[in-house]
Amino acid sequence: MTRFRLALSSILVFALIAVVAAYAGRRTTAEMTDGIPARLFEFTYRVHVPANADSAGPTHLWIPLPPSDAYQDIRGLHIDSPVSYVQGRDPECGNAFAAFAPTAQQSSAGFDAVLRFTAVRRA
Fold first, then answer.
1. Burial of 106 (0-12, 13-18, 19+ CB in 10 A)
2. How far apart are CA 24 and CA 27, in angstroms?
């Protein structure tokens, strides 16, 4: 009788381990990108340029943009601002940026720029 209980207990323990291992394997796969563990972050980057009482000179604003590389993918980059802007790249280092060129009226009133994007980081 004792051997029967030991055998039955062993079978139940192995079955439980198999179920837990199978569930853990599915969960890990869902959190991986191309076989590499990944984490997802959503960013909102808000810049407020206050009103400039001295609108005699031009106002310029440069905001660095996040890069996609071997460690992260940048998805859905969206820039929202009433001020016109262009995206460019620094010729020396290759870093991406957004350059804003407000009118004198926008500069004297102040303005906001909002960047939103999702970053998928890999270990």
1. buried
2. 5
Q: CB 24: neighbour CB atoms within 10 A?
A: 10
Residue 46 and residue 116 in contact, taking contact as beta carbons nearer than 8 Å: no
Read off the pLDDT of residues 17-67 as tens digits, 9 standing for 90 and up.
Answer: 333 334 443 333 334 556 778 899 999 999 999 988 776 677 889 999 999
Neighbours of 21 (CB within 10 A): 10
Its sign, for the CA torsion 46, 79, 64, 34, is positive
Q: How far apart are CA 45 and CA 37, in angstroms?
A: 26
CA distance 107 to 53: 8
What's the CA gap between 75 and 89, in Å, rounded?
18
Distance, CA of 17 to CA of 99 (rounded, Å): 57
Residues of 30-43 as b/e, b for ≥16 C-beta within 10 angstroms?
Answer: eeeeeeeeeeeeee
